[in-house]
Write a structure and sequence with these properties.
Blueprint lengths: L13 H9 L20 E5 L2 E5 L7 E12 L13 E7 L2 E6 L1 H34 L16
Antiparallel strand pairs: 1-3, 2-3, 3-4, 4-5
């Protein structure tokens, strides 16, 4: 069980806010709002994902974000889970995240996605293209024994 220290509930000092921002030149947050609690102090950099025609539980297709990322750091994070150093959170599809990825974990995800995309391009796409061509040419008739029996 993780215990939270009293220090984390202290409001961050202006120097801590400035130092956090200065160590993160990529940060998109201007830190001009109210000073947060130390544990909530963070920097982030968002990157665009892609919009895919997603379908959720039989609903009509709607555009959904996929592979959206944001890099962030929470320098005063209490738990030792990697959030206190720069890391990436990867949204696989709307609402589904792979959180707190360090460089090694992100590299593993990229390798798996690249391998899957290669498989889709070199195996599934040619199979689909051939199946579509056969279908359109009328070469996909069911064998007689597999055809449905029509009631008379």
């Amino acid at each position: 069980m993780t215990t939270t220290t009293q220090q984390s509930y202290l409001v961050a000092t202006p120097a801590e806010v400035w130092a956090t921002h200065a160590r993160s030149p990529w940060c998109q947050d201007d830190h001009s709002g109210p000073t947060p609690a130390r544990v909530d102090l963070s920097c982030y950099l968002a990157s665009d994902g892609v919009v895919l025609p997603l379908e959720f539980d039989g609903d009509d297709q709607t555009g959904g974000d996929a592979l959206f990322t944001y890099m962030s750091v929470h320098p005063f994070w209490d738990e030792q889970d990697g959030r206190d150093v720069p890391h990436v959170n990867l949204q696989v599809v709307d609402g589904v995240w792979l959180p707190v990825l360090g460089p090694e974990q992100l590299a593993q995800v990229i390798a798996k996605l690249r391998a899957r995309l290669d498989e889709l391009e070199h195996e599934v796409l040619p199979q689909l293209s051939q199946a579509r061509a056969d279908w359109m040419a009328g070469r996909c008739e069911l064998p007689v024994e597999a055809r449905p029996v029509m009631a008379t």
